[in-house]
Amino acid sequence: MRTEPDAIMLFAAGFGTRMGALTADRPKPLIVVAGQPLLDHALDIATAVPVSRIVVNAHYKADQIAAHLSGRDIQIAYETPEILDTGGGLRAALPMLDAATIYTMNTDAVWRGPNPLRLLSDAWQPDIMDALLLCLPPTQAIGHVGPGDFLRSEDGTLSRGADLIYSGVQIIKAETLEDTPQGAFSLNMVWDRLLATGRLHGCIYAGKWCDVGHPGGITLAQDMLSAPDV
Hints:
The chain is α/β, with parallel strands linked by helices. The protein is 26% helix and 27% strand. Strand 2 and strand 3 form a beta hairpin.
């Protein structure tokens, strides 16, 4: 199998509880921002890179996700009866992804700047990395609430800390999911293993990113996208 990423996993199964009433009748990935659903913002990025497969997971109001994607060359990994979290969802989708190396991407953010998947691909070094996370300094992360997630050393390896915010986009080897539990678990479990071996790396996004996981993020994202270039 290819050592560069050959599939993309888009996470779209969550309940969107931080969105309140906005997700009472639709899943969060179908909330419209700047004229199109969040899921389509993510797909614009995903379809611009050369991969063989795109897989979207679905649980909450999965029928709406399926209807929205009908007719597109995109597979749906249904999580039923229970939602599987990021790690469990990725593990369950591995047969559909059918790739040794995979992009994963959250669908509750909007980007302004270079394609984040291309940036990761350019920085990917499989000989020394098992996962590469795209991170941002707080000054470039709009709408993010709370501390950061990681520290980045001079050689690019990550450790836990508050300096950088994880953007929700990464490259990860499928083999890192071996020996993980069946059912629901977070990708943090996998990352902690890689942290211990120095195989978790990070790179910095050069543009801006807006968290649209909460209602206020919608206006912030639209303002970010419409702001003049400086």
